[in-house]
């Protein structure tokens, strides 16, 4: 009843090709944006903004990046932590060596470097597939860990190998308070989500999906696997690199290679799988699940004043979290995004299901 | 269909719970002390006794003295698992609770680095007893950091001094080979600048052996050590890396009494399972946390005899890391007390007032005796310039059953430490656009 598209006619190609062809979706998204840009900064506490929403948005961005590679192009990668690290350290190096460079340019240059590294580590994908590729992308992870620990130039000869960013500002506006940080990250997340959505709808996205579904058939119909695979690696690592720079600059402020270790790669891969392979919205769901659920679980004993030792709480948290992952994947192997679209279909035919 | 609805309700429940979290906690008259801890993960063997000690001392102050001049202490633990992002989350959650956190002891070098920048803006003190940013001893630049009682540089210097004593004088160090086996992270790399400076001045050769975290794979490192035969090995490890290193040393026949460990690798739980294998193993200790003092008896009397101790298994009470936890909390409580002397006894202190307290700690031997720490540590006095206070340290040695104090007190050689503090603090101030305070008032 609420979600019926009766009477919504498209009379131009333009109208037919919108990202959200259904009016209800447009209203919903507009409402969501108003909520995110206006209401949340006004209402949420600084803890919620800084410790919950900001990391959630940054990792959503990273998940979008990885989803392009894994979900849309079918190239499994376990090196996303490395690409985040490259983005972070490259951005930081530009910042340190040319402080005049605007913050946003620094972050985007971080993405550019991640792209270069991503393409280099994407080359094996031209010969190998599936799990074999996953293993070779691990090399990126080990290489990044090694490089940022061992090459002193990359950390500007910092004695401990730890680097930190100076006070940030963009367009003369300081990015210091939780609200400013949140909005800064939100703008990145929204812009990149839109870009990604449009890319995967376009010609290049269709090439990626063709490669994913069957690369031999794709090449028979004239899709060049080299081009498709390497662009997927490039776009994916660019977005991941930008999110790495944001993670380092905005969320941590000071970091060491451990912030981008193998666990981060796994975390991102889980986000993509739980959220839904091949879905931009799913990346947000996945990030929400992986970032927010553990935080919520750690806070549970506090809300109810349960006298629970923190180590017990931490173990319970891990168990519940693990159980939830298993449950979700059994209930819906296609991820949370699929649940969402099932929900939409149900609403469409409600109240007369057939 | 049914699934979908169940899931939807579950998700709404999570969302509702998250928004409930946003409600700020009511300000209370209690003095709030956040306790970051890692009771899980690869560093848990070190983290558990440390956290127990920190909490027990706060409990003791409440039970024995009724708080600090009548102001009760409240506290909340937050599990970091030694992960920086979790630590940042804990910090954000606890920094403003109950009228403001009195100070953070993050228990981790990585978390210290990350929250140092945030603490300046939030105006909360960061208390790092024996770790953290070594250059933050310079209080003019690092207004909110307090690396009390010593840093990794003073520890490294103490080790070199003890080695020099063993070989018969600093001049005999010439031509010797000293290896540093370190956890490959900022924690492990901290001592390198000081050791390099000393190697240059004293003429010994410094060999660096990084070990990838968490430190369970050290075979190749120790094979290299067997090949290069350093005269002494300094061990910068923590958690699981320590017993592994000792076993590897045994495997290649490297004498354990030529090994010197940093304080985080020198507690009973690192060696007691090894027993005689670790015999002769040396560690430097901040102050004298190998001893026990009156404070332990008090804790036994007021807490454990009444079943209120934190260490419910009774496994860690009185161990070195536990005692270090006590010291950390004691310094925190004394900072609050010092602040109350200035801003009003029996009142709740704001984080900024507690910072003043940290900067004006003056614990004389008499005062330490009163507190029950007379045997455990030596007097400390902090000032605006000197946020470290003092850096007495000693060497302890494992005899197969327990740690014995085997050296006199050492203080680091300021000739090596001070230039580094100055140089790196200045570098930090430049990077962050901080104008150092003049420290006149």
> Helix segment count of chain A?
14
Terminal CA distance of chain B: 70 Å
Describe the global form of chain B: globular
Broad shape of chain A: globular
| Major sheet: arrangement of strands of chain B | 6-5-7-8-9-12-13
Output the radius of gyration of chain A: 21 Å
Mean pLDDT of chain B: 86
Given as residue ranges, the uncertain stretches of chain A (5+ residues, pLDDT < 50) are none
Following the backbone from N to C, one meets helices and strands of chain B in this order, namely HEHEHHEEHEHHEHEHEHEHHHEHEEEH
Distance between the termini of chain A: 14 Å
Strand residues, percent of chain A? under 5%
Total of helices of chain B: 15
Descriptors for this entry?
heterodimer; A: 354 residues; mainly alpha; two-stranded antiparallel ribbon; B: 441 residues; alpha/beta
Description:
The complex is a heterodimer of chains A (354) and B (441). Chain A has helices spanning 13-16, 23-43, 46-72, 80-97, 103-122, 130-150, 178-201, 203-213, 215-220, 225-252, 262-275, 280-303, 310-331, 336-349; strands spanning 163-164, 169-170, 173-174, 254-255. Chain A is an all-alpha fold. In chain A, strands 1-4 form a two-stranded antiparallel sheet. In chain A, helix 4 (80-97) runs parallel beside helix 6 (130-150), helix 5 crosses helix 10 (225-252) and helix 11 crosses helix 12 (280-303). Chain B has 441 residues and is an alpha/beta fold. In chain B, 44% of the residues lie in helices and 13% in strands. Chain B has helices at 2-21, 44-65, 84-94, 109-122, 152-167, 186-189, 192-202, 219-228, 241-252, 268-271, 294-302, 320-343, 351-359, 365-371, 414-432; strands spanning 31-37, 73-79, 126-127, 145-146, 177-183, 205-211, 232-236, 259-261, 282-286, 362-363, 380-381, 393-398, 403-405. Chain B has a 7-stranded mixed sheet, with helices on both faces. Chain B is globular, with a radius of gyration of 22 Å. The interface between A and B is large, with 53 and 53 residues.
């Amino acid at each position: 009843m609420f979600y019926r598209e009766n009477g919504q006619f498209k009379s131009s190609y333009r109208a037919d090709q919108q990202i959200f062809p259904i009016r209800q979706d447009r209203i919903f998204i507009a409402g969501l944006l108003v909520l995110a840009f206006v209401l949340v900064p006004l209402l949420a506490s600084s803890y919620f903004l800084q410790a919950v929403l900001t990391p959630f948005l940054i990792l959503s961005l990273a998940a979008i990046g990885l989803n392009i590679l894994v979900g849309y192009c079918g190239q499994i990668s376990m090196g996303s932590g490395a690409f985040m690290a490259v983005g972070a350290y490259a951005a930081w190096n530009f910042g340190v060596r040319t402080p005049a460079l605007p913050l946003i340019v620094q972050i985007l240059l971080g993405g550019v470097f991640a792209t270069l590294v991503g393409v280099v580590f994407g080359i094996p994908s031209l010969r190998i597939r599936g799990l074999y590729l996953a293993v070779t992308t691990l090399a990126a992870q080990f290489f990044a860990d090694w490089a940022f620990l061992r090459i002193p130039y990359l950390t500007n000869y910092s004695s401990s190998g730890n680097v930190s960013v100076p006070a940030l500002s963009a367009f003369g506006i300081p990015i210091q308070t939780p609200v400013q940080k949140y909005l800064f990250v939100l703008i990145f997340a929204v812009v990149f989500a839109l870009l990604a959505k449009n890319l995967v709808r376009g010609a290049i996205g269709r090439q990626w999906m063709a490669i994913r579904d069957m690369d031999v058939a794709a090449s028979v119909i004239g899709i060049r696997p080299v081009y498709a695979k390497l662009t997927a690696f490039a776009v994916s690592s660019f977005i991941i690199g930008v999110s790495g720079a944001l993670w380092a600059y905005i969320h941590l402020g000071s970091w060491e290679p451990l912030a981008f270790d193998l666990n981060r790669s796994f975390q991102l891969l889980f986000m993509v799988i739980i959220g839904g392979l091949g879905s931009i919205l799913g990346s947000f769901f996945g990030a929400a699940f992986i970032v927010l659920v553990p935080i919520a679980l750690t806070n549970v004993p506090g809300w109810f004043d349960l006298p629970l030792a923190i180590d017990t709480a931490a173990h319970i948290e891990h168990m519940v979290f693990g159980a939830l992952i298993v449950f979700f994947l059994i209930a819906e192997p296609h991820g949370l995004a699929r649940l969402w679209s099932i929900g939409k279909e149900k609403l469409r035919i409600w109240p007369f299901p057939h | 269909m049914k699934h979908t609805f169940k899931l939807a309700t579950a998700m709404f429940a999570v969302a509702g719970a998250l928004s409930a979290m946003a409600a700020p906690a009511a300000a209370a008259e209690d003095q709030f002390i956040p306790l970051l801890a890692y009771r899980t993960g690869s560093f848990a063997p070190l983290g558990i006794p440390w956290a127990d000690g920190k909490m027990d001392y706060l409990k003791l102050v409440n039970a024995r003295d009724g708080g600090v001049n009548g102001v009760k202490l409240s506290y909340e633990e937050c599990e970091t698992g030694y992960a920086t992002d979790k630590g940042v989350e804990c910090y954000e959650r606890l920094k403003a609770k109950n009228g403001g956190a009195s100070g953070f002891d993050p228990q981790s070098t990585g978390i210290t680095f990350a929250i140092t920048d945030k603490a300046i803006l939030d105006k909360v003190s960061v208390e790092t007893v024996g770790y953290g940013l070594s250059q933050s001893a310079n209080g003019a630049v690092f207004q909110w950091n307090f690396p009390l009682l010593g840093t990794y540089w003073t520890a490294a210097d103490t080790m070199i001094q003890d080695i020099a004593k063993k070989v018969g004088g600093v001049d005999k160090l010439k031509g010797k080979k000293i290896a540093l086996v370190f956890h490959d992270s900022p924690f492990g790399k901290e001592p390198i600048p000081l050791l390099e400076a000393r190697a240059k001045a004293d003429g010994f050769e410094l060999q660096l052996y990084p070990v990838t975290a968490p430190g369970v794979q050290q075979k190749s490192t120790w094979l290299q050590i067997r090949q290069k035969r350093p005269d002494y090995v300094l061990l910068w490890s923590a958690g699981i890396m320590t017993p592994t290193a000792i076993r590897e040393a045994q495997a290649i026949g490297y004498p354990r009494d030529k090994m010197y460990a940093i304080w985080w690798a020198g507690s009973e739980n690192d060696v007691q399972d090894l027993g005689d294998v670790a015999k002769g193993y040396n560690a430097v200790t901040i102050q004298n946390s190998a001893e026990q003092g009156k404070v332990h008896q008090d804790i036994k009397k007021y807490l454990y005899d009444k079943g209120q101790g934190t260490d419910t298994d009774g496994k860690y009470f009185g161990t070195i890391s536990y005692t270090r936890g006590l010291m950390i909390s004691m310094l925190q409580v004394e900072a609050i007390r010092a602040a109350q002397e200035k801003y009003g006894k029996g009142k709740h202190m704001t984080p900024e007032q507690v910072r003043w307290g940290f900067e004006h700690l003056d614990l004389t031997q008499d005062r330490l005796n009163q507190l029950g720490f007379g045997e455990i540590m030596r007097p400390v006095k902090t000032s605006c310039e000197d946020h470290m206070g003092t850096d007495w340290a000693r060497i302890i040695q494992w005899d197969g059953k327990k740690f014995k104090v085997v050296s006199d007190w050492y203080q680091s050689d300021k000739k090596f430490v001070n230039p580094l503090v100055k140089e790196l603090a200045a570098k930090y101030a430049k990077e962050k656009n901080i104008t150092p305070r003049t420290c006149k008032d």
